[in-house]
Protein: Phosphoribosylamine--glycine ligase
Amino acid sequence: MNILVIGSGGREHALAWQCAKDDNVENVYIAPGNAGTALEPKCQNVVLTSTDASEHSAVIEFCQNNDIDMVIVGPEAPLVTGIVDACRDAGIKAWGPTAYCAQLEGSKTFAKEFMEQNNIPTAAYQGFTDATAAKAYVDEQGAPIVIKADGLAAGKGVIVAETIEQAHEAIDDMLADNKFGDAGSRVVIEQFLQGEEASFICMIDGDNILPMATSQDHKRAFEGDTGPNTGGMGAYSPAPVVTKDVHDKVMSQVIQPVVDAMKDAGHPYTGFLYAGLMIDKAGDPYVIEFNCRFGDPETQPILMRLQSSMVDLVAQGLAGQLPSEAKWDNRPALGIVVASKGYPETSSKGDVIAGLPELDTTNDNAVKVFHAGTAFSNDNENEVLTNGGRVLCVTALANNISEAQQAALAVTAAISFDGAQYRRDIGHHAIARENAW
Structure:
């Protein structure tokens, strides 16, 4: 069996690693991949010209020429531009939602209207294209308040404004100064929700739902959940805040309504669905955002725990026969993102990375470094360089979250490059619960 994974981040490294573990898999191609995916057994990076554009002919041509049995789409951009639709039209099996369904991530306005129409709990909101009107709404609502770019902004188009002045500045950045390009030509302004965040990710085949292990992401750049929002500075699985009661509420109030509504609209949802949630003190979930793919960095700790075959699960999903449960390691996993200098505002490329361990992981030393923004040096094929904002995700599996955090930190501390930054408190919510017990 030959598989094509589209994407270049830590999520795609984890997906490729999991697929390559399957005995039935001969080759895993990653387009374009990174330095880590290139080093994995059975994995090979390939360069395609149109993986994130509306024209997907290069993907289709590669699949036809290389006997690809299934395509797994990692990032959101090609999903929003219809790569799954194009593959299906060409008779190629592709795992992901169609362009219609991917609007749940591609447009905050579409997602909020969809939730409103289908009684999915979420924050109150208004959408704006005019900065003056947006500021007037903020003045009326007060702070803290959340400002979101309507379109795709690589996980960074969300500003949690603590003051009216910060909200006005975010509105100007998006609507007047075009900081996020077309993604910020319209903004959604939301009520600030109180509670604890969690990530709830499922596989869906149009009818059947397979919940993945729960997880919690850390979006803020700095320790103590402070600083600007990022694409994610670390994650752990499972998330203790998602109790059985919360899990049942999420399935009945959030996930099932999405599946039912998309099916009723004539666009059955297939692929991964990510619900970013705020869980309030009463244990009630509210949707902060939908993503139409596996989260990053949640994928890394979740897939460290997965004992079922990812290939089998995707194959069952493509056949409309997803099981209701997968097999998981009972141990928790935790991943720490190592970011480059200036992230999230800027990123540094070309810095030499030292101290990288071997890619393999064992039960006795269950730590794996997933690559994201990395590339090989043109001058030295053994030298790995930074190549983006989030560079690595050091992920550990252990008996509890505290041990997983310490194991990940020990490996992270040995890795160095100019300007490397990471949080040392990933998992602090779960560790506080452990200490309270």
